[in-house]
Design a protein that fits this description.
Elements: E1 3-7, H1 9-17, E2 22-28, H2 35-47, E3 50-54, H3 56-62, E4 71-76, H4 83-87, H5 89-93, E5 98-103, H6 108-120, E6 125-129, H7 138-143, E7 153-156, H8 159-168, E8 172-176, E9 182-183, E10 193-198, H9 206-211, E11 214-217, H10 229-247
Parallel strand pairs: 2-3, 5-6, 5-10, 6-7, 8-10, 8-11, 9-11
Antiparallel strand pairs: 1-4, 2-4
Helix pairs in contact: 1-2, 6-10
Length: about 250
């Protein structure tokens, strides 16, 4: 079975809380008395997961280059969700659908940060392309601070076809790009919504943009011509929450 390293205190904690299948956990000798590490040890005991206290060098050898904070879990490799999986989630939760499509985010730290915000904003699923984009790596899991345990991610071959599937399911697709049809706060996000944000360098690609029902933009008052993609995604997602909160009784 393929394995995956989960590194860092928060990612390991959330993996345990989410019931992720874990083979064993390595704890650096110097960290075993820390309060957060003690919580991890307690959760591992409850789940019957093997814990080994080792020298810090052993963790570095297991996950070279990773900022492991003295905690590392070895788990089965993570699988991706399917589009059908995430389309069922809103009905199961009794919520208005909200999805996020990332058209070519290549920096793992940006992807991790976006997944963290998506989880806190209640996004029902995130879609990423198979090529020219970051996948679910250790760096992404670490940057997401555990959110990856709760946000289903779908990897697709063709973003354009996926947007067509969303539209056939009755969702409105809103792209985000400079010079859009309207400012983001003038759009109506209270209905079933798919938000599309582009990659760090090229933004939303032309064919993807043409599949969007409308394009929104964020006002930029300074000299910099764009926002970091994770910041832009956060602004848009919390505008969705704001509008829906105002509409709810």
């Amino acid at each position: 079975m393929q394995k995956e390293n989960i590194v860092g205190i928060n990612p390991v904690m959330e993996a345990l809380k989410a019931g992720r299948p874990i083979q064993r956990i390595l704890i650096a000798e110097q960290r075993k008395q820390d309060r957060d590490v003690q919580r991890i040890l307690g959760l591992a005991r409850e789940a019957g997961i093997e814990v080994r206290v080792v020298a810090r060098d052993a963790l570095t050898r297991e996950a070279p280059g990773a900022v492991h904070q003295g905690v590392l879990a070895i788990a089965a490799a993570r699988g991706y969700a399917t589009l059908d999986d995430i389309l069922q989630i809103p009905a199961q939760k009794g919520e208005v659908p909200l999805y996020l499509v990332l058209d070519g985010v290549e920096d793992p730290r940006n992807l991790g940060a976006i997944l963290r915000t998506a989880e806190t904003a209640g996004v029902h699923g995130v879609v990423i392309p198979e090529r020219r984009a970051a996948g679910l790596t250790e760096s992404v899991a670490k940057s997401s601070a555990g959110a990856l345990e709760y946000v289903p991610v779908v990897k697709v071959v063709n973003i354009v076809h996926t947007l067509d599937e969303f539209k056939r399911a009755g969702l409105w697709v809103a792209g985000a790009e400079a010079g859009g049809d309207r400012l983001y706060w003038d759009a109506d996000f209270t209905g079933p919504t798919v938000l599309v944000v582009g990659g760090e360098d090229r933004g939303v690609r032309r064919l993807v943009r043409e599949r969007c029902d409308y394009i929104v933009s964020l006002p930029l008052k300074g000299r910099i011509s764009s926002l970091n993609v994770s910041v832009a995604a956060g602004v848009l997602l919390y505008e969705v929450l704001r509008q829906r909160a105002l509409k709810s009784p």
